[in-house]
Each structure stands twice: as C-alpha cells, then as structure tokens.
Amino acid sequence: MPPIRSLLIALTPQERERFLPGQLAAEIPALATELHFADPAELGRNGFSARLAQLDPEVLLGGWQLQSLPTALPPSLRYLCYLTGSVRRLVTRAQIEQGFLVTNWGGTISRTVAECAL
Fold this sequence. Notes:
Number of helices: 5
Largest sheet: 5 strands, parallel
Distance between the termini: 41 Å
Helix content: 25-40%
Number of domains: 1
CATH superfamily: NAD(P)-binding Rossmann-like Domain
Radius of gyration: 14 Å
Strand content: 15-25%
CATH class: Alpha Beta
Order of helices and strands: EHHEHEEHEH
Number of strands: 5
Shape: globular
C-alpha cells in the first residue's frame, strides 16, 4: 500500500507537461491510494478552495497557478510540495508554525523555470 492516502496534483495542463514529463508522470500513481488532479487556473480561488475541502488530500503538489490556501486547512492536509518558487503568497506563517509542512524545489527546478521564462 502506498504511504500516502490521497494526493492532489494542482497543476495546469502546461505545468503538468513541464514538471511531470513521461516516466515521472507514469510513476506518480504508485505514490498514493487516491490520486486527484485539479487545474487551479480553471477553478479560480473559490473553486479551488472548495475542491481542496471536498477532496481533503494528505498531500498537495502545486505550481505557478496554485491559489492561496484557505486559512482553515482541510483536516487531512499535512504537506504542500510547491514546485515553482516562494510559498509566501500560498501559506501563512501560522499554518507553518502549527506544523503544516511546506517545501519547494527552489534551485532544483531553477533551470526549468529559467527556460520557461525565456
């Protein structure tokens, strides 16, 4: 059984293509029992917050278009893996101080970010 019950990948189709190419995308289903996808740009802030609450994932994977997370996080959400830079606009200091785990790819993805910008 995978170590994650539920994973929500909140990327636009372009971000998914850029950050989860080929073999990497093929390996993701093995990470979680439930795998969900949402396009945050299509849903907008309120729609994304509603979808996040409905799915109540343990892990959220997001990119450039990820909306700010609601102040009251879904009960199961314990980790945000942000692929594309600073998380300042996404989470509050209070959420982190309360134990919400947040990481970003920082320098690991900087080449891809620079290529996309060019």
